[in-house]
Amino acid sequence: MTARVRFFAQFRERYGAELRIETPPGATVTGVVQEAAGSDRGEESVIGEDGSLRDYVILMKNGRRVEHDEARQTPAEDGDEIAVFPPVAGG
User: Fold this and answer.
1) Do 5 and 19 touch, CB atoms closer than 8 A?
2) What is the CATH number of the domain that holds 10?
3) Does residue 81 lie in a domain region?
4) Residue 90 counted as domain residue
5) CA–CA distance, 88 with 26 (Å, rounded to integer)
6) Which tens digits make up the pLDDT trace of 75-88?
7) Residue 31's closest CA among 63, 59, 8?
């Protein structure tokens, strides 16, 4: 199974615009994003030092927002598009 992970804004600069991740059976949205980020744990990473998603990261699965608690339990399925955004600010 393959999921497509798309990064936006500064995350795009760090990881590239899009990665295709092979997802094993039982993979979750969080797990796919962690796999896409690899071992990157820098201050600007989507992953914190403890290996969990940073609180401010915004996730969408197939165009629908997924909260962090939900992302840890939501299965990643073949053909999914997971979008990863930094916080949005401005007016």
Assistant:
1) yes
2) 3.10.20.30
3) yes
4) no
5) 31
6) 999 999 999 999 88
7) 59
The pLDDT of residue 40 is 81
Strands 58-61 and 18-22: unpaired
Identify whether 91 is part of a domain.
Answer: no
- Backbone torsions φ then ψ of 87, nearest 5 degrees: -60, 150
Query: pLDDT digits over 58-72, tens only?
Result: 999 999 999 999 999
Question: Could you tell me how far CA 11 lies from the centroid of its own chain?
Answer: 10
φ, ψ for residue 61 (rounded to 5)?
-120, 115
Tens digits of residue pLDDT in 11-57 = 999 999 999 999 889 999 999 999 999 888 777 889 988 888 999 99
Q: How is residue 49 written in tokens?
A: 């030092």
45 falls within a domain = yes
